[in-house]
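Notebook entry, structure prediction.
Reason for the run: the old model in the group folder had no record of what sequence produced it. Starting over properly, with the input documented here first.
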Amino acid sequence: MNVYSNKQRWKRVLLVAAAVIVVATLWYSNDIAQRIRVEEQTKVRLWSEAIVQRAALVGYTQQLFEELGAEERHKADRLADAYRLINNPPRGMDLTFITDYLWSNKTIPVLIFDESDELLYRVNVDRGVDLDSLKSAMRAANAPIVFNDVGHTIYWSESLRFSELKDVMQDLIDSFISETVLNSASVPVVMTDSTRTAVVHFQRVDSAAVADPARLEVLLADMASANDPIAVDLPGEGRQYIYFADSIVLTQLRYYPLVQLVLIAVFALVSYLIFSSFRRAEQDQVWVGMAKETAHQLGTPLSSLMAWVGLLEAEGVRTDYLGEMNRDIVRLNTVVDRFSKIGSKPILKEHDVVAVVRDTAEYMQPRVSKNVEMVFDAPAASIESALSPPLFSWVLENLIRNAVDAMDGEGTITLAVLQAESGVLVTVSDTGPGIPKSKRKEIFQPGYTTKARGWGLGLSLCKRIIEEYHGGRIEVGDSVSGTSFMLSLM
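New structure, fully documented this time:
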């Protein structure tokens, strides 16, 4: 079973499942946001209609108050005329009606002082009122009427009802702004004057943006692009514009799923990296333990083989046979040395790379198919580099065996060594079918294999030995035919 393929298949399944979850979450959140937006827009539309209707009511009330004020003003003027007639009546005129008219005054405040500026009468004026201030206000509003024959002075002003009407009108305007425009809105609101540059009132908006003209212009433009501003005409204030936008809650809800998914993704990535490092460390410990145990188990039969070879030499067995046996025993010692070095930092020393590659090629030549030709291409001079010969030779052996399998036991394997600008470059090339570019990164993953039987650890082990132990680099190079592995050493 191809472990790497199964892992890749599960990765794709999990990726598709994650994509479905993300799309479903975004769709559902967007659906909720749209429904809330529709409901909020309905409320805002009703709110804007209420503003227009209330503004029209305020305007109508102002017109009514102006008419009532004109009537009250007319009454005040008639009352002043009545006092003037009493002060200087035409000859033969009956003043009974005029006197009754004066005494029927129930709304217009009147103060009458004698020649010593002492108060004689007060009409429609409370006793707790400051008379000096009231007299000054009356004198400023209307010229007092003086009775020259008796020295009396009459002060008067607009009616109490008219003053109350003005106060009510101002309260109505304030109520319109505070209750209808501001308190009734759950959205950011900015109310400007007719020039659309001076802010009269605002709520749920950053005060710094309101204070900065440049930021205010951008803010009003954004609000206007979302909703048309409402124009209202207020008595004494002129035309004003009300800008509004979507509520902060709706805006946050629109971006909350994205933020949430990003946080979840970051958390999942960090957790994955942490647990992967733990799992990798555990796997490394298992492999190191197995390697060292293998080296330990091989030690006993290897010692026995060495003893048997010595016994055979004493018995006079053919030396060529014994030479090959000794060579395999040396190779077994090398294998034991390799396994014992796994998990520990190897000691790198300067060695002749050409000699190490040549020795490996000479050892592997009689141990591969007779239909495989081994070609060694290297300069005559030595090329030095810091390496561990047993581990580096292990890499070359794995690459040669893979090449033999890829060529089905028939073809040419070329090993080359050359001095490059960045260090030493060793290439192992074959004439097999080659590796597709889409698979060149996958082949170094643990578990990847194209064989019916195999662990898929050879190239992964090669990558670790070259890159982690030797600080070099291994990669698949471009080749016209076959496969070419390039090993770079510093």
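Summary: Residues 3-87 form the longest helix (85 residues).
The old model has been moved to the deprecated folder.
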